[in-house]
Amino acid sequence: MVEPAWPHPRPPGYNARPLSQECSAVADATPPFDDALPEALRFRSPAPLVDIGANLTHESFARDLEATIQRARAANVSTLILTGTDREHAEQAVALARRYPGLYATAGVHPHDASQWSPSLAAAMGELHRAPEVVAVGECGLDFNRNFSTPAAQERAFEAQLGLAAQSGKPLFLHERDAGRRMREMLHAWRDDIPDAVIHCFTADRETLYGYRDLDLHIGLTGWLCDERRGHHLRELVGEIPLERLMVETDCPYLLPRNLPAKLKGRRHEPALLPWIVREIAHWRSVDEVDLARGTTATARAFFRLPTDPTPPDTEHEES
Ligand SMILES: [Zn+2]
């Protein structure tokens, strides 16, 4: 299969590098992106949205980061939670959150990089979690789909980060792939000590979903269900996630929705396209897009304990 089954497939056009290294790769592989989105992809959400998973420190955004943030605002995606998947990228995410209003960061070590876990890394992460811009511990968790780090190393790093979450009092931003049972076991032991946790980019089955619901976890949905080849089971499940536990994310630059109404040069996903995903989820839940937008935003604001939205609804014509 050309298309990887992992929730972070590499967009075509990127150089082939091991996925575990993709975040630390230098920006020498930038595909030819459009400067503006094609007309048919200039969405505007009927209510402000929170993209809870945007990898804006990815090399592919280095060239047009400001424009990417502007396009998100024009689409009414007013708040972006930047995913920090290792120390370097978490520090970059914090720096961006300090620079741009409406941006926040997470700080964790991805299961792919779990073999790097060490006492000094744990100390650095603990320090990052004290920053007010860091609103969650993660991305961390378990990925037994590829085992870039051994399962034992993943469990060790995850266990340590569960401890850091308990210490910091901040919620967890979790990655799980083919490890639902072990994830539930480990979370169960810590559940009373951590305030909240979201399974980002949920793609698993009904049994796993209800296991997570039993633990009172939140669920993050991406454009996975926009894929007619592999999103079918999710389309049937989205109605079974309570609105007060549901949040939305692009997981950009990965997971470009497959059913967009126009082609995008470079095939890089970005926050401005989140309204399309919300529309799709609303369709499969048989609810209004505006209600879903409002509901997921209220859930995200409460989950990450965000202040009242500081961003004007439309900054398209703002002078810089
Ligand atoms: Zn992930």
UniProtKB/TrEMBL annotation:
<comment type="similarity">
    <text>Belongs to the metallo-dependent hydrolases superfamily. TatD-type hydrolase family.</text>
</comment>
<keyword id="KW-0963">Cytoplasm</keyword>
<feature type="binding site">
    <location>
        <position position="139"/>
    </location>
    <ligand>
        <name>a divalent metal cation 1</name>
    </ligand>
</feature>
<feature type="binding site">
    <location>
        <position position="175"/>
    </location>
    <ligand>
        <name>a divalent metal cation 2</name>
    </ligand>
</feature>
<keyword id="KW-0460">Magnesium</keyword>
<dbReference type="InterPro" id="IPR001130">
    <property type="entry name" value="TatD-like"/>
</dbReference>
<protein>
    <submittedName>
        <fullName>Hydrolase TatD</fullName>
    </submittedName>
</protein>
<dbReference type="GO" id="GO:0004527">
    <property type="term" value="F:exonuclease activity"/>
</dbReference>
<feature type="binding site">
    <location>
        <position position="200"/>
    </location>
    <ligand>
        <name>a divalent metal cation 2</name>
    </ligand>
</feature>
<dbReference type="InterPro" id="IPR018228">
    <property type="entry name" value="DNase_TatD-rel_CS"/>
</dbReference>
<dbReference type="GO" id="GO:0046872">
    <property type="term" value="F:metal ion binding"/>
</dbReference>
<dbReference type="InterPro" id="IPR032466">
    <property type="entry name" value="Metal_Hydrolase"/>
</dbReference>
<keyword id="KW-0540">Nuclease</keyword>
<keyword id="KW-0378">Hydrolase</keyword>
<dbReference type="GO" id="GO:0005829">
    <property type="term" value="C:cytosol"/>
</dbReference>
<feature type="binding site">
    <location>
        <position position="251"/>
    </location>
    <ligand>
        <name>a divalent metal cation 1</name>
    </ligand>
</feature>
<keyword id="KW-0479">Metal-binding</keyword>
<dbReference type="Pfam" id="PF01026">
    <property type="entry name" value="TatD_DNase"/>
</dbReference>
<keyword id="KW-0269">Exonuclease</keyword>
